[in-house]
Design goal:
Chain lengths: 168, 141
């Protein structure tokens, strides 16, 4: 794969990579770092990339795995500071964003368990079909549907509740 | 009529049984200005996904390895250029030396010719002397 091929084929989905990273890592800085890091990895492996039928799905799988690893190592080092997670600057950003409905939804999405967050992001934001989501998350279609349905229902419930609070 | 369809789609949506196309119908419906009162809460719900999608990765992605490769090419080009300049200079010096050598050789050869010519001249001068001598002898006859 030449440099040009790489830029033409792999660079266009950088925003999707970034948004998925942000969904998992929440912090914008961390998501930007992750995107940069992932693109370096892709760049280094550009010769073998050609072997993949769906490069985008492959890149998204890489993103998911990389971010989950990041979270794992962060949790391992932050084990004693679990409760202070609520006091980090991101929650400030969240409250600012939560002023509008979209911000509120974003906050609610980020409160979902990781798997549900991933499924919502891939389906409702990026509009991937179930086959692609299955490839990215290494999940069976039935399992995806169950997770997705649960996530959507939780979001609806919380969203409506918060909005009623807002009005009251 | 359309409302009934939307309500049915909503039900399907929360069971995760809608196709991408149907989900798009829902998003388009709730993106409209006017949404029936009893469904108004879904406007923000579906609108949020579009909002999230607007987020883009702003910083430029850097590829240091590419830069490294480029530098390599540049370095190779500089070395090649220097080498060619150097070898050209060497070549010129060499040419100069060759020319000098040839010049010296020629000079030597010319000197030899002139020496030999002088010898010849002397011989001719001697002959002339005999000639004069002969003439005087015969005139006096």
């Amino acid at each position: 794969m030449t440099q040009k091929d790489f830029l033409d084929k792999v660079l266009p989905f950088k925003d999707k990579v970034y948004r998925l990273a942000k969904r998992l890592l929440v912090s914008r800085d961390e998501a930007e770092d992750a995107t940069q890091e992932l693109y370096l990895k892709l760049w280094k492996n550009k010769e073998s990339l050609e072997g993949y039928q769906n490069m985008e799905a492959f890149a998204m799988t890489m993103t998911k795995n990389y971010c989950l690893d990041q979270l794992k190592s962060k949790r391992a080092s932050n084990l004693t500071l679990v409760h202070s997670n609520y006091a980090n600057p991101d929650s400030l950003q969240k409250t600012i964003e939560a002023k509008d409905e979209a911000g509120l939804m974003l906050q609610l999405i980020d409160e979902l368990p990781e798997k549900q967050r991933l499924v919502i992001q891939l389906r409702d934001v990026e509009n991937y079909d179930f086959d692609e989501i299955g490839e990215i998350l290494e999940m069976e279609p039935t399992a995806i549907r169950v997770t997705l349905s649960r996530a959507r229902k939780t979001l609806r419930e919380k969203f409506i509740k918060k909005q009623q609070y807002g009005i009251a | 009529m359309e409302l009934l369809k939307i309500e049915r789609l909503l039900e399907k949506y929360f069971e995760a049984n809608t196709s991408l196309e149907e989900e798009n119908t829902l998003k388009e419906f709730f993106a409209k200005e006017t949404v029936p009162d009893h469904l108004i809460q879904y406007k923000g719900f579906f609108g949020a996904f579009e909002q999230v999608k607007k987020e883009v990765h702003e910083p430029e992605i850097k590829f240091p390895k590419k830069m490294f490769k480029l530098n390599w090419i540049a370095a190779a080009a500089v070395i090649l250029l220097m080498l060619s300049v150097f070898s050209y200079q060497q070549y010129e010096v060499h040419q100069q030396k060759e020319a000098q050598k040839a010049f010296l050789e020629t000079q030597k050869a010319l000197r030899m010719i002139s020496q030999n010519l002088n010898k010849g001249n002397r011989a001719v001068a001697q002959l002339e002397y005999f000639d004069k001598a002969q003439q005087t002898v015969f005139k006096n006859d």
